[in-house]
Amino acid sequence: MAFSGSKIPEDTDPENPLWRFACRFWESPVTRDACLALQNRGWSVTRILCAAWLTTSGKAFPGVESEQVTAWRRQVTEPLRSVKKTITKNDPRTAIVRECIARSELEAERVEIALAYQALASDTYTGSGEASTANLALNNLLAAAPEKTMDNETGSLLDILARELSTLVEGDNKPC
């Protein structure tokens, strides 16, 4: 599927609940580091964020995403990330270029998350029936995995994210 700006639905909202959740979840250095480590292992951070966001509502992540999200990631977000990585950090001669590409990558991720939110919001998900947020988080993260077999380090990263997500969700339920 080729992508052009005209294929982004007009009602796609970059300021959606999934984006706001992602910004909040990303504030934790532990969460951010775990997500980036998984990204370096071939994971999609958007899929991780979708799985985590559904966890906050007690819903199971189905492990699939819309073709639009996948196409946008492959044709826009990933190429920007790849170009950014080719430019040396902290080189004053290329700092402005790298910074502009990094901002563009973030905006591409924002569109990707908006497309993901639109797809998730149009589907009706039921409760997961999981006994705990930690179990649901781990199962949702496993559903977001690019492959079903993983090593101990990947498992440890998933455990970290599940704990962080549990803490975030439980924190929301604490009395004022």
Write a concise keyword list for the protein shown above.
176 residues
Overview of this structure, please?
The chain has 176 residues and is mostly helical. The chain has helices spanning 17-26, 29-39, 45-56, 67-86, 95-122, 133-143, 152-172. The chain contains seven helices and no strands. The model has no long low-confidence stretch (mean pLDDT 88). It is globular. Helix 2 (29-39) packs antiparallel against helix 7.
Mean pLDDT: 88
Return Rg in Å.
Answer: 17 Å
- What profile does the largest beta sheet have? none
- By DSSP, the count of extended strands is 0
Q: Note the beta-strand portion.
A: under 5%
Helix-strand pattern, N to C? HHHHHHH
Low-pLDDT runs: none
Helix content class:
55-70%
Characterize the overall form: globular
Helix-strand makeup class: mainly alpha
Question: How are the SSEs placed, and which strands pair?
Answer:
Blueprint: H1 17-26, H2 29-39, H3 45-56, H4 67-86, H5 95-122, H6 133-143, H7 152-172
Helix pairs in contact: 2-7, 3-6, 4-5, 6-7
Quick summary:
The protein is an all-alpha fold. About 65% of the residues lie in helices and about 0% in strands. The model has no long low-confidence stretch (mean pLDDT about 90).
